[in-house]
Queue: 3 jobs
Job 1
Amino acid sequence: MKEATDILAAVKRATKVVITSHRSPDGDSVGSSLALLRFLRTLGKEAIICHPDPAPNYLEWIKKDDSILNAEVNTELVQTSMANADLLFALDYNHPDRMGAPMANWFRESSALKVMIDHHLHPEDCVDILISRPDVCSTAQLIYEFIEDAGCLDQLNVATGIPIYLGLVTDTGSFRYSSVTPKTHRILAHLLEIGVPHADIHEATFNNNRVDKIRLRSYILAERLEVLADFHVAILSVTIEEMHRFHYVKGDTEGLVNEALSLEGVNVAAFFVENETGVKISFRSVSAVTVNTIATEHFGGGGHTNAAGGFSEESLTETIQRFKDLIPTYFHA
């Protein structure tokens, strides 16, 4: 792939490399960022990872001795790093606005060569080199394929393979989504062959529950679940007060929307989470139903066919009602 060789050449020319990803970090954004950082290190290049906000606690283990700057805590350092960069990577987002202000503005103002590697639909024309593959399950897989296409697969080591595996397992629901392909499994096989400890990654990522986390998730499922059986839609929601009551920590509700989708007869699940500025929304659907459209057209978001997100500045009650009013149009009985 020409893009891979062009990126490799850009890396070799660069002296100050910065890796960015989207707001609200997840396993794929953190995994792909660290995988790229560690691969560049095998080429003798150092880089700085700059994210908009901190990663959830359940992902802290993956950093090891590496650091991820975030614009909430390290504002001046992130701004300076992006301004001084001569090579900027945009990972796991299709539009700078997904970083939120001010990082989106710093990205656009930068004179650096810009490279986007992403698997979301409709990338903005804002970079010099683009790898956009909405058909691929994760950006972590695209990092692996970049290394492969650049002819550097012999330099893939366990340190780089671990975050690739993390991105794969988290963005595919432990390899159960329809986006998983034979290529994904061949990559997994190679990662295991070089010694990536897949069982340890699962344990570190998924077996770290706190009592308050379990109680919060149980409360939401028991008290805040609504099923609209005629339309095969399930709705979850949680207020700020409820999250405070259960001592919410970032990441506590990660993946909960999939529990609603797993209900018998449910084809679409939506999870509405109230915060200080509005309502964050997660949409999920079975393979035959699209949720990206409603997220894009009505909730200022987007994503994939079966997994999308959005945001509303209305109240929690108003946002849920607006979604319900739209259900007959987008999800037929």
Job 2
Amino acid sequence: MPRLRSAVLNGYLEVAKSVGLNPYPLMRVSGLDPATFSATAGWIEAKCVVELFELSALQSGCDDFGVRMLGNRGVSNLGPVGLIAREEPDVRSAMGIVLRHMSLHNEAILLDLTESGGLATIQVRPATDMALGRQSTELVVASIFRILSDFLPDGWLPVATCFAHGAPANGEVHARVFGPSIYYDHEIDGIIIATGDLDAPNRLSNPVLRPFAQEYLGLLAPRENSSTAGQVRDLIATLLPTEHCSVTRIAHSLRMDRRTLHRRLAQSGETYSSILDSVRKEHATASIARGDRSFTEISSELGFSELSAFSRWFRQQFGVSPKAWSVDQGEPVPERQQY
């Protein structure tokens, strides 16, 4: 079962008491030992925390309980992941650390970054075999909002904060936290920001400390793919949805020129194009099987400028159209509205 660090419960006792709850019986009913609060570096089952937050909202009558939990959370609440991210030079690389290594802090959620038309979307999804309640979802989205606020200048606001569920009975707390641009009954849970925000400097960064943070990251999460081909695969998977995936950019990230990169890939029997196709095939089939993306969305996430280009590529790879493949799998892809 997915787990998360007990630091996620920071502030729970105070918020619960502020809305008239006795938190300890609720914790026991949810399967949590109250002693958890004395071990903020430990791991606890995510489903117990989800149940605790939902039960607390129900018992208190506060359907904004998750947002109230935000408190002083920010990048520092992510523990080791936050320590590393805060030293990255710009917001894009800092958020890249958060997105790629969130499982070191919380195994229950997946964070996706996509870019299109000058907008960047950070979407929250539950991990496999995990269901997120309203309160947990709102706390995660609020935490992402606060992390971005830590990196960006004072007064920054997103283009939109989105929730797939309906509006709360009283939206005052949400408006105070997120600002005026909140959308409910949306197709995603997440934050939409200007792409330019990702390229802004990270105001927390200290260039002197970054090498030590990177070394610490290597100890926490050593690369599974240490070969050049494996590193290229990792970078393609990260950059593909961002409209910034190219052999030139990847070569630069690996501190080599394009010719050297092509030569090293050839030594392992690979090419940039073969790895790109492999990553695209894996992502395309997984997205269609999940059934939570339209073909247009999948096309954009795979770096195609037009749906027709994606369809041609898909037919070349699989011998059938995306629609035919989804029907064969029994997972039709919805034609969902765009933001």
Job 3
Amino acid sequence: DVIAEIGRGDASTAWTVGIINGANWMAAAIFPEETQQEVFGTEGGARVTGVLAPRQCTVQRVDGGYLIKEGKWGFNSGSYHSNWVELGIPLLNERGEVVDQGLALLPAQDVERLNDWNVIGMQGTGSTSVAVQNKFVPDRRITSMHQSTEGNYLSKNLRDEAEYRYAFVPFLAIMLDFPILGAVRTMLDLLLERLPSRGIQYTWYTKQAEATITHLQVAEATAKIDAAQLFIERAVDDIESWAQRGEYMEYMNRARVRMDTGYAARLLFEAADIIVEASGGSFATAHNPMNHFWRDVRTGTLHAMLNPSTNLELYGRLLCGQPANTPLV
């Protein structure tokens, strides 16, 4: 709710807060106590960001850890605020063969920002690509992605805390919907505020609020926003209830949360488009706040974890007895 409320004012700020909260949670939940002390003992407090999947990455297994010889990761949201960065890397066996995907935790000074975040929306997230060359990461700051998705977290000291038993992928996925939910609610508020003072061009309507088409548009947009919130709340309730019971969320439930996450994002973008359609030509003005919010919503819903087609396919495949289309469940 806090992140959604921040999103009502600025989606980029809400997105960055959500990403750092989620990455801080990972640093606490899926790494051992020794690493927690290192990260959260950082002067000024820990601000962790991360990218799960590399665009390219070459590593070498060495004594005591991994050498990241060369790697590049895209869309590291919150990069300019972070002092620690979690980056997905391949994990190798003794023969140098890839056997798993891992997550390496590096101090931000070991990571180069490529300053390539030149986009139409979510500009304030600073989601630049990052690169690493010839940096050593000790074993205490590396964890298995596969083990994390299965709930086998390394934070033995936090096992009595329900919030550190949240299911890995569902928790990180649903966090992404909240900034967009807040932004679309503000778009609806902006539309409703303007209705009494504007007409509809080339019609007899001098007050848009009196037009039947406006009633249909406002009702449908509201219905989509409310439906998205219901999907989000169902997912959150599931994540919390499993953790409170001390159980790791069952596989099909995790897949359903991914479906809920993507479908909520689709509903929110559809609602935003209806609001834009009702806003008239003034929407295209560069300084129109509605324009700013729409660009943030459109950019945010392009995140791979929010892709409704991928998430629907995942759940549909499992319902039909087929293997998942992703390891991130």
